[in-house]
Design brief:
single chain, alpha/beta, Rossmann fold, 13 strands
Length: about 525
């Protein structure tokens, strides 16, 4: 363990000695590290102006890549100022100081007891990383060494252009990502849904390379998901990775694996996967290195072949074989592919080079994140990806109604409240506004019911909660009512009454329905129309 302070005036890091400004604060941190029995280097930033200087960031970046022995030690930086996103006077690379399992930052916003608690948290995280041998993994060492060089060389030098305003590489704060990930996780856990993941990685069932490493990539990912309650603890170490045996195990995620492209294609040809975790650098097959972008290219070619065959068969009687995985495509007729490379932009850049977009009618590929080096960024990007899948289906911000038996009725009430804030209370104009939106939600639920037939766990869990056969009658009554309201006058008021009464009869709580503002408004509007007939 070493203890240093950075001083911008001397442009150097120097070791803390007895009698120096940070000596007593150092003793407190030292006591934590001795108790934890871990090796960590501690840095104190001595001046509030340090984060505004190139020298500070350059020095910390160089701390990693200058160690030619690659015996890197994790770092905690204790500063007098919080890291700031943007700001003309600040070095835009400063988020590097809190960007991975290797480097943690505690700033001014964490004063007194809170600062001490955050230092204790950082020590706790690092101790857990040591226990999981994350610092022994070769790709983890490679990651921090490379990022140190990237940070050091990513400051633009030529004045008069972009040097004062732009950093060509973006870094994140793991602390910030943790807070955002927790918010996304909260949305997911409210729903109690299920997902089947496919992990495509040559180390999916083989120990990662490094000194004393016994865990494979699947196990490391399961540790993260189990801590968040998305994998049952008793299934975390499950070896068979067979989701079929867990189909009735409640909510959460189950993971199946493939170690190369052929086995992955075989897997997706037999079963629907809700999300695919895809590494960029795969193993060797027939003495030739495989890359994850080739898997995406195979999917693209298979879909194009199926479309071509379908077109030909419309004009010819001869039948041709369509790739099996086309019939097992993911939820909402799309493959949801999440890259997990150590270098998150590699996959997106490579598929762009191949002329493949990250967003297509049949697939969606976000930036992704590395679960080993940047676990909080991985959590946030993955959970945000899962919520995007949910939101594309359920639309709006209706997640707050998830789990409600009267989900459809709650959606209408929410839409009515949003509408009333901006418009008047006319029921017919309200109907014109929300009728197409209700049609869209209904069509997506119907589309998902087809995914249920394809064995999607996500589809099965959504359909079970929100779109069972009993709900379809209610949907038809609601859609017909709002169709009549939006496009017909008083002559159709008896038919409107009929549909509104049908909705009331199918409601789980009739008295609660009658109290809802949209119901009262529609009820009064139909009554006025009906009076015109009489």
């Amino acid at each position: 363990m070493k203890y240093f302070e950075f001083n911008k005036y001397h442009k150097e890091i120097k070791e803390i000695k007895e009698g120096s400004f940070y000596f007593f604060r150092m003793l407190y941190v030292k006591s934590l590290l001795v108790e934890a029995d871990i090796e960590v280097d501690i840095f104190f930033i001595n001046n509030k102006e340090d984060l505004k200087t190139n020298t500070c960031i350059d020095t910390f970046a160089g701390y990693f890549f200058q160690d030619t022995s690659n015996n890197f030690v994790p770092v905690i930086i204790i500063g007098n100022e919080d890291l700031i996103i943007g700001g003309k006077d600040y070095d835009r690379r400063q988020m590097f100081l809190d960007s991975s399992i290797w480097i943690y930052y505690v700033g001014e916003g964490n004063k007194g007891n809170k600062r001490e608690k955050d230092i204790e948290k950082a020590v706790k995280y690092i101790k857990k990383n040591y226990e999981n041998k994350l610092y022994n993994i070769n790709v983890a060492k490679e990651f921090v060494e490379f990022n140190g060089r990237i940070v050091r060389e990513s400051k633009l030098q030529i004045k008069g252009a972009h040097a004062d305003d732009v950093s060509p590489f973006v870094f994140h704060s793991e602390r910030n990502m943790k807070d955002l990930a927790d918010q996304e996780l909260e949305k997911i856990t409210k729903l109690n849904l299920k997902w089947r993941f496919l992990l495509i990685d040559d180390f999916a069932n083989t120990s990662l390379s490094g000194d004393g490493i016994i865990k494979n990539k699947t196990e490391y990912i399961k540790v993260i998901l189990a801590k968040d309650g998305l994998i049952k603890q008793e299934n975390k170490e499950q070896e068979n990775n067979d989701c079929n045996k867990n189909d009735n195990s409640g909510e959460g995620i189950c993971i199946e694996i493939a170690t190369d492209i052929n086995s992955a294609i075989n897997k997706i040809s037999k079963k629907t996967y809700d999300i695919i975790l895809l590494d960029y650098l795969l193993g060797e097959k027939n003495r030739k290195r495989e890359y994850g972008d080739k898997f995406i290219e195979n999917i693209k070619e298979g879909i194009e072949k199926a479309q071509s065959i379908e077109t030909e068969q419309n004009t010819q009687s001869e039948e041709k074989e369509i790739p099996e995985f086309v019939n097992k495509i993911g939820p909402l007729n799309r493959f949801w592919i999440f890259p997990i490379s150590s270098f998150s932009t590699a996959m997106i850049d490579k598929i762009r080079e191949r002329g493949i977009g990250h967003l297509d009618k049949h697939w969606y590929i976000p930036r992704g994140a590395d679960p080993l080096n940047t676990p909080q960024l991985f959590r946030y990007n993955l959970y945000r990806f899962m919520n995007m899948q949910i939101e594309e289906l359920l639309n709006y911000n209706n997640i707050e109604f998830a789990g409600s038996k009267d989900y459809l009725i709650h959606i209408i009430e929410k839409l009515y409240k949003d509408y009333k804030k901006k418009n008047n209370k006319n029921a017919d104009k309200f109907a014109v506004k929300i009728y197409p939106e209700l049609i869209l939600i209904h069509s997506k639920l119907q589309e998902l019911s087809k995914d249920e037939e394809h064995d999607s766990l996500f589809a099965k869990s959504v359909i079970k909660k929100y779109y069972n056969p009993k709900q379809e009658k209610k949907w038809q009554h609601v859609l017909h009512l709002f169709y009549l309201l939006s496009s017909h006058g008083y002559l159709k008021s008896p038919e409107m009454w009929k549909e509104l009464n049908s909705i009331k009869q199918t409601a789980d709580n009739t008295e609660k329905l009658k109290k809802q503002k949209w119901y009262k408004n529609v009820n009064n509007y139909i009554a006025e129309l009906y009076n015109k007939i009489n």
